[in-house]
Design goal:
The structure holds three protein chains of three kinds. Helices cover about 45% and strands about 20% of the residues of chain A. In chain A, strands 4-9-5-6-7-8 form a six-stranded antiparallel sheet. A six-stranded antiparallel sheet of chain A has the order 10-15-11-12-13-14. A three-stranded antiparallel sheet of chain A has the order 1-3-2. Chain B folds into two domains: about 160 residues, P-loop containing nucleotide triphosphate hydrolases (Rossmann fold, 3-Layer(aba) Sandwich); about 70 residues, no CATH class. Chain B is built from 13 helices and seven strands. The radius of gyration of chain B is 18 Å and the shape is globular. Chain C is built from 19 helices and four strands. In chain C, strand 3 and strand 4 form a beta hairpin. The relative contact order of chain C is 0.10. About 0% of the residues of chain C have low confidence. The chains are: A alpha+beta, B alpha/beta, C mainly alpha. Chains in contact: A-B, A-C, B-C. At the B-C interface, helix 5, strand 6, helix 7, helix 9 and helix 10 of B face helix 1, helix 2, strand 1, helix 3 and helix 5 of C. Strand 14 of chain A pairs antiparallel with strand 2 of chain C, so a sheet runs across the interface.
């Protein structure tokens, strides 16, 4: 009996290996993997050079080595290959992108940011997870896929962090924004951009739930910290963190909290009129809410709001629709029959 | 099931048929193809079952029909194939079921489309009707669940509905079979051209009108004069991947030829023999 | 290409469309939908005249009760328990009747064959193999299904299921999954393959994949007979007769709840590991309650489901019956092939509190789970005494007295029946839906792995504490 087991396992093992070999074609796979890896190396190097160019610094072999984590020997080989391909020139220790190299680099940046936009809008991937996923996907997308993605997303101008997305021709709309550290006190501002590197700081920003589109006011500024408000909660940020958040003058929009309340804040039995969907509500979830008839002017009535109101069921255009709190919070309504509700939400804008 | 690939010679005479064959519709036993669209929970499957005598499983919950079901029925000596599309709220969201439905309506070119609506929630259901009417001229609105509407104290003026939409609207109670005869009669009349339809297509919203007009003119330059030209323009302005592809590959141009083909009925007959 | 006149190409149109799209900004679609709804509102206002809306109040009152935080969940469990109780209590007698009749027929047929002098192996193959497999499937499965499905269909037609999804959504949200997963699970009660297809209504690919991979944790109707039989023989037997069927129903409900628990746990685990992400948008329509139509319920549940499932089981049971008979009757080295295989699988089986025959039955039953119990019984019979089983008492005698089943065997078999690889059809469906070998493999092996682990832990714990 003991031997039987061993033979059985051996036979199953051999069968599996054999069939996998035929099915998966490891050799072909390996070649593909190598080609992809080579492309990824090229592209990562190009991105690095582009980043340095934007901050008007000279990229060097050392800086590249630090970024790509390659051995000296392999790195030099890579640089030689890229130079031969006409992607970069070296001037002494400094490395510069050629115009072709720059085009390519911009294409990678475009792929990265479009993919982030896609993940955020359509797949609901949280802000903190986007970067890593896009780091992988940016090397795989073909130009045709990119164009289709771009059109599908409605040619977005910015990625979820607020960084501009280069167009197919490589044009970049520069960001006109100030770091939060330089923003005047008590002026309403809108977050345009959140720097996703270094990661420690980015994680802190994500943890505070500050994202592009959020309206904020700087309430207090001290050398050790800043206090800002997003209309609901006050956040205390260190200057290092605040410097990684870029803001501009807030655009007057439907998210103006003064007259409107969120559908999520209505209580059972309350009726109101939809004013707008939050600009933060994008992609699939926006399309879905629109399709269900939550367009401006529609009457809504909260019919079921059990437990903690999550999910809640809302009567809209004759049918009963269940929404989670997150979705209900993205619908701005006016004229809720509750009288005290409005003042409670209006307070934040006049501080 | 292997879709019948039309050869070049049959394609010239039977473009509409070729379109349907490409959608995987087996046409050997049928003269006409009728699509069944509608919101979830409108009793669409019940209408389907009542018409075809099939017993597709129905249940009172959204999104139950996720695949395309097919059945047939005969009326006045003509054999109809009924294709039950997934229930959707809209044709714009590009979720999987919506894509199945709208690809069929646009590229499959059914002879007529029945849009089943819930008489108790007309407003929301009409959203889909208007979208279907953007795509096709040949449609009949089936105002189902009339009994429930009556119970809820709703009076639905089907004549006014029909006038406003520009296509026949037929009140039905699919569960009891009430009004289904009228429904089929309306379908045949639309197919035969006895009833001229002039689907209601609300003007494009002012903010986007210029862009839509410009694109429509460009489409005219390509001789893409589809009844659904404006809808195609909408889709292009939204970056719809499938429609972009169809434009590039010439699939849209093929649809134009399909619709311009003289005497579709005759060509369908030829096609039926030719495809075998 | 140097045309004299520049002709317009589709490419030009596309480029222009892109430029226009960019100019319009991201709110094009909002405008279109708004205009459509404005128009719809206008048309509807002209066409619809309201007299009252009393009826909605009634719906709302029911909804308040059904989704209430206090009554909602208990009501759901109560309904589930009642359904199983009625099924178990009602199926017992018809099952025995059917078994008696079918085996009586077998005995007569065998007598007749013997009288005609037909060789023993033809008689054995046809009647003790093929026919007996069939008879088991029919008598064990038909009555419970004929009772269970109509009741379940009534729930579906009423519109109660979306309310269940509504009530359970907060749990799925915590698990990082979609509330509609509850609906796909409800479909899974009928058939896991159907449940996997039903996940198409979940729009987020991540959440859809979670729903696909975990659907197998809902026992499908092919597995209910196993659960019901075990609950009746082992659990019910431990209680006084008055409470027996209640206890059995309770055991089945417990297994279903355990399945739901595993669904949530695994969903939670998946959305924190290989399928990372936050819960996406959730919208679900709660349709108005509708009176179910009796004819359709009978048709749907009896023809569409009961006979369909039975037919599938029969198709698989016939060749399986033949295979089992061959395995049991071809001897190599003094023991039958079935004996050899079962002996071979026995160490593994014993380690997880089962035995080799049960594992072999699960291997044979990969095409359809319906035949697990019949396979086990036939194998025990084929390798042991040829007796006729006419009801649960004899089955109990066979399993407990002759093959040493204990409460642990029964409990672990119930667990294993809940937690093992999906049937062939479901695996195939997962592949068709995901088009990915990787996810198909995960979908097939993950439940099996969990099953082995759970049963092994149970068996080890029970033995360590010396309870058995």
């Amino acid at each position: 009996m003991e031997n039987g087991w061993i033979w059985f396992l051996l036979a199953v093992g051999a069968l599996l290996t054999g069939s996998l070999w035929v099915r998966l074609r490891p050799l072909a796979r390996w070649h593909r993997w190598r080609a992809l890896r080579e492309r990824a190396l090229f592209e990562d190097a190009l991105k690095h050079l582009l980043t340095f160019e934007h901050s008007s610094r000279d990229a060097t072999v050392e800086s590249l080595a630090g970024s790509l984590r390659l051995s000296q020997k392999r790195l030099l080989r890579l640089i030689a290959r890229m130079e031969a391909a006409g992607l970069l020139h070296s001037h002494g220790a400094a490395l510069h992108l050629s115009s072709e190299g720059k085009q390519w680099a911009l294409r990678v940046v475009r792929a990265h940011r479009l993919w982030e936009r896609y993940l955020a809008d359509e797949a609901g991937v949280p802000l903190g997870e986007l970067h890593h996923a896009a780091e992988r996907a940016e090397h795989r997308l073909t130009p045709e896929e990119l164009d289709a993605l771009d059109a599908h997303l409605g040619h977005p101008l910015r990625d979820p962090h607020g960084d501009p997305i280069p167009t197919a021709t490589g044009a970049v709309t520069p960001l006109e924004a100030l770091p939060l550290t330089d923003w005047p006190l008590d002026q309403p501002a809108q977050i345009l951009h959140v720097e996703d590197e270094p990661e420690v700081i980015f994680k802190e920003i994500v943890a505070e739930d500050l994202r592009p589109g959020t309206r904020v006011w700087v309430l207090e500024r001290r050398p050790e910290y800043l206090i800002i408000s997003d209309g609901q909660v006050e956040h205390r940020l260190t200057p290092v963190v605040a410097a990684n958040i870029h803001v501009a003058k807030a655009i007057e929009g439907p998210s103006q909290p003064a007259e409107l309340v969120r559908l999520a804040d209505l209580v059972e039995g309350e009726e109101a009129e939809v004013a707008a969907l939050d600009p933060d509500c994008r992609g699939f979830s926006r399309r879905r809410l629109l399709d269900l008839g939550l367009t401006p002017g529609a009457r809504v009535r909260v019919e079921l709001s059990p437990a903690f109101g999550d999910p809640r069921a809302v009567r809209v255009r004759g049918s009963l629709i269940a929404l989670r709190r997150e979705q209900a919070a993205q619908v701005w309504v006016r004229g809720g029959s509750r009288s005290d509700g409005k003042s409670q939400h209006a307070g934040a804008s006049q501080s | 099931m292997k879709p019948v690939q039309p050869t070049m010679s049959t394609c010239e005479t039977c473009p509409a048929h070729a379109q349907l064959a490409q959608m995987g519709i087996d046409l050997r036993k049928y003269d006409r193809v009728v699509a069944l669209a509608g919101n979830p929970n409108t009793g669409k499957s019940t209408v389907f079952n009542a018409l075809t005598g099939l017993k597709q499983h129905t249940g009172n919950w959204p999104g139950k029909t996720v695949t395309r079901a097919e059945g047939g029925f005969a009326w006045g000596g003509i054999r109809y194939k009924l294709v039950d599309l997934p229930g959707t709220y809209s044709l714009l969201s590009a979720s999987q079921d919506e894509e199945i439905a709208r690809n069929f309506l646009l590229f499959g070119q059914p002879d007529c489309t029945i849009v089943v609506v819930d008489a108790t929630a007309l407003e929301r259901n009409l959203n889909l009707v208007l979208q279907v009417l953007e795509i096709t001229d040949k449609a009949v609105v089936c105002v189902n669940l009339m009994d429930e509407a009556r119970r809820k104290g709703l009076e639905v003026d089907v004549r006014s509905l029909s006038r406003d939409l520009g296509v026949p609207a037929v009140p039905t109670v699919a569960r009891t079979g009430e009004g289904l005869g009228d429904l089929i009669r309306a379908v045949t009349e639309v197919i035969n051209g006895e009833v001229r339809t002039s689907p209601r297509r609300p003007p494009a919203p002012p903010e986007v009108r210029d862009a839509v007009e410009e694109l429509l003119q460009l489409a005219d330059g390509l001789e893409l004069s589809l009844p659904s030209a404006r809808w195609v323009a909408y889709r292009l302005l939204e970056g719809d991947h499938r429609v972009r592809q169809a434009l590039l590959s010439g699939e849209l141009a093929q649809l134009v030829t399909a619709q311009a083909a003289p005497s579709r009925r005759a060509s369908r007959k030829i096609a039926l023999e030719g495809a075998q | 290409m140097s045309d004299r006149v520049h002709t317009l190409t589709p490419q030009d149109v596309l480029v222009r469309a892109d430029a226009l799209q960019r100019k319009l900004g991201g709110r094009f679609r909002d405008k279109i939908v708004e205009s459509l709804y404005d128009e719809a509102e206008r048309i509807a206002r002209r066409a619809v005249h309201t007299r009252t809306d009393r009826h909605w109040d009634l719906d709302q009152r029911i909804d308040r009760l059904v989704t209430s935080p206090i009554f909602g969940m208990p009501l759901m469990l109560f309904i589930l328990a009642v359904i199983f109780w009625v099924t178990i209590a009602g199926a017992n007698y018809p099952s025995e009747l059917l078994a008696t009749g079918l085996f009586w027929f077998e005995a007569r047929a065998v007598e007749l064959f013997n009288a005609w002098g037909i060789p023993w192996w033809i008689t054995g193959f046809l009647w003790h193999g093929v026919y007996r497999g069939l008879a088991w499937v029919v008598s064990v499965m038909l009555p419970p299904m004929a009772i269970f499905f109509p009741m379940f269909t009534i729930l579906e037609d009423l519109g109660y299921l979306p309310r269940v999804a509504f009530n359970l959504d907060w749990l799925f949200k915590k698990a990082g999954a979609h509330g509609k997963q509850a609906l796909t699970m409800a479909m899974g009660f009928g058939c896991n393959a159907a449940g996997v297809i039903a996940t198409r209504t979940i729009d987020s690919p991540r959440e859809r994949l979670i729903a696909i991979l975990t659907n197998n944790f809902v026992p499908c109707n092919g597995r209910f007979p196993t659960l019901i039989m075990l609950a009746t023989i082992f659990v019910a037997a431990a209680f006084p007769p008055a409470l027996a069927s209640l206890a059995a129903a309770g055991a089945v409900v417990a297994v279903v709840l355990l399945g739901a628990l595993f669904t949530l746990l695994v969903s939670w685990g998946l959305s924190r590991t290989i399928l990372k992400g936050e819960a996406s948008a959730f919208t679900l329509e709660l349709p108005p309650y509708r009176r179910p139509s009796v004819m359709r319920i009978l048709y749907t549940s009896l023809i569409d489901r009961t006979l369909f499932v039975l037919w599938r089981a029969i198709i698989v049971a016939i060749p399986a019956g033949a295979v089992i008979w061959i395995l049991a009757n071809i001897s190599v080295g003094g023991a039958s092939l079935a004996q050899h295989t079962a002996d071979f699988l026995n160490p593994l089986g014993v380690a997880i509190g089962l035995d080799g025959v049960i594992l072999l039955a699960y291997v044979i039953a990969i095409p359809a789970n319906e035949i697990v119990v019949p396979t086990i019984l036939m194998m025990y019979l084929g390798t042991g005494m040829m007796i006729e089983l006419e009801g649960f008492e004899q089955i109990r005698a066979l399993l407990v007295d002759q093959h040493g089943w204990t409460l642990l065997t029964a409990v672990n078999l119930m667990l294993f029946s809940l937690l093992h690889n999906p049937c062939g059809t479901t695996i195939w469906t997962i592949w068709k839906e995901t088009r990915s070998r990787k996810w198909t493999l995960v979908g097939a092996l993950m439940p099996l792995g969990i099953g082995f682990l759970v049963t092994f832990l149970t068996a080890t714990a029970v033995r360590a504490f010396g309870w058995i």
